[in-house]
Amino acid sequence: MANYVQKPAAEVAKGVFQLEIPTPFSVGPVNLYLLQGEKLTLVDAGPLTEEAWHALNAGLESIQVRLEDIEQVILTHHHVDHCGQLERLRRVSQAHTMAHPLAVPYVEMDEAFLSFHDRFFYDLYRESGVPDEKLVIIEKYHRLITTFAEKSRIDTVLKHGQKVPGLSEWTVLYTPGHSQSHLSLYRETDRVMVAGDHIIKRISSNAFIEPPRDQSQARPLTLVQYRTALQMCADMEIDLALSGHGEPVAGHRELILQRLQKNWERTDRLRELLRDGEKTAYELNALLFPTLYEQELPLTLSETLGHIDLLKILHQVECREAEGVLYYSL
């Protein structure tokens, strides 16, 4: 963030202003969107840092808006670069907060859920063959949540297909995959979509593995969800997709087709790796992402497990368990 240059808010569609906010993460700045309607609405809040707070205030000031003017905040999803300073914003503005139901335990930092969250990843990484010394990543991820976000609350939950309260032109779309709580907003009158991290021009959104909300359920197949939600959007008339990172996307169908094609290419690559003999998910991860897997383990292992899920659905992979570790073979 040291080299970040503050940009003024820009009107990217009718009544929609983009505010670029710095983050301390490798993904770079995050885009927030101010939507004019019956109620002045901010989509996402940015991470909990002083730089992000200053940028939010400066961006709003550039279009003569104060924090106190914001009447409601909608979260596209619960990742800290999008929701971290929600509570700080809520304290100043008294804004009504909205998100998908699955964002609630993260935003409200439900202790029982977060404890289950850590156990889930411990079990997942152990069965994936992750070495014991690398399991510290779970504690590191937990610290990430509590460092760049603070406990807040969600006043209203939003679900697929409903009209957005206070924004009668906008409809809620449930677009899971990158996160279980991911929502997008769609305005049919001019075919504009606020896409969050579902559709990003320069990078393919990672389909993060996340625990189920109910401990008795199996884990969600996040890559399958992501592909399905992309296909749903490809069937829609969207002239402009406003992303959570980077520039707006025009020509969404072509981009989605490229994403889906590259996705299958990686599945084919994993199938090739298994021809050499059985491997754990961690071993496959190291072969698929040799330069990234150590420093970006949660991202790359999620991607690897997602492609294993696809091969399972196609009945092209077998799995055996030995001493708590899963081994995959063709």
Automatic annotation (TrEMBL):
Residues 29-245 form the Metallo-beta-lactamase domain. It comes from the Bacteria. It catalyses: 3',5'-cyclic UMP + H2O = UMP + H(+); 3',5'-cyclic CMP + H2O = CMP + H(+). GO terms for molecular function: hydrolase activity. Signal peptide: none annotated. Pfam families: Lactamase_B (PF00753). Keywords: Hydrolase. Counteracts the endogenous Pycsar antiviral defense system. Phosphodiesterase that enables metal-dependent hydrolysis of host cyclic nucleotide Pycsar defense signals such as cCMP and cUMP. This is MBL fold metallo-hydrolase.
